Amino acid sequence: MFQYEKKLFHPVAVEKPNPQYAALLQEQLGGANGELKAAMQYMSQSFRIKDPAIKDLFLDIAAEELSHMEMVVQTIHLLNGHDVDVRKVPAGEIESRVLLGLNPGLINASGYSWTGDYVTVTGDLCADLLSNIASEQRAKVVYEYLYRQIADRKIRETIDFLLNREEAHNAMFREAFNKVQDTGSNHDFGTTKAVKMYFSMSEPSPSDSPFPHTKVTPPLFD
Q1: Per residue in 183-193, is it b (16+ CB within 10 Å) or e — as a string?
Q2: Dist. CA 56–CA 187, nearest whole Å
Q3: Roughly how many angstroms between the first and final C-alpha of the chain, as a whole number?
Q4: Which of 63, 173, 197, 212 is spaced 20 to 30 A from 92 at the CA atom?
């Protein structure tokens, strides 16, 4: 059961409308590394998790990602202002001005619709956790790019908060992975000599490269 509390997870504001930046921020609403993608991925992955603590972790973070999505939506709404004028967005998505009446849509910065294809679910906890760690890192990178392209102090405060929460999620997923790293796909197959092989495919290799001369430590198996 979900319960909606009618307040934002963190307050948002803008110094002034900026429709062009609203188009950029759409990436974190309906893009491949956005908040909706994260919420749906973590929730979908939770369905088969047997460890109750890790299942709760996935669902808690999924719920928080939905609250982040609400923050992004509200910021886009404030940035768009009240005038439907496509000339104010010289580049990027224009659907919000010609189809949606300035309502933030489930589209990315180029106007492409959000899709479930963005969501990665394998049913293997190790693989899903590694995917989530990468997802949080990619989302953080997008927010960093967005941060650099706006001088609005209030928007920067919102992005800074979201950046920090992405890092917090990353740390929690890493901790969960440390707990289960010897299970699932990390445990299913025995080691052979192939796990210790390194092939140098580019010759000549850098003289200081450690890889051709280092034995790779294989994973631990019972």
Answers
A1: ebebeeeeeee
A2: 24
A3: 40
A4: 63
Q: Residue 42 is encoded by which pair of tokens?
A: 């973590």
Q: Which two tokens stand for residue 154?
A: 């209030």
Joined together, the tokens standing for residue 182 give 């010897």
- Residue 221: pLDDT band (50, 70, 90) is very low
Contacts of 79 (CB under 8 A, 6+ apart): 14, 17, 18, 19, 21, 22, 25, 155
The amino acid at residue 218 is: P
Cα dihedral 113/118/7/55 (nearest 10): 160
3-state helix, strand, coil in the chain (%, to 5): 55, 0, 45
String of DSSP letters for 111-173: SPBP-GGG----S-HHHHHHHHHHHHHHHHHHHHHHHHT---HHHHHHHHHHHHHHHHHHHHH
Look-up of token digits 């993608």: 37
Alpha-carbon torsion, ordered 11, 174, 3, 157, to 10 deg: 0
In the chain, the amino acid numbered 110 is S
- Tokens 């009446």, residue located: 101
The overall average pLDDT reported for the chain is 90
* The pLDDT value given to residue 2: 79
Provide the whole-model pTM.
0.86
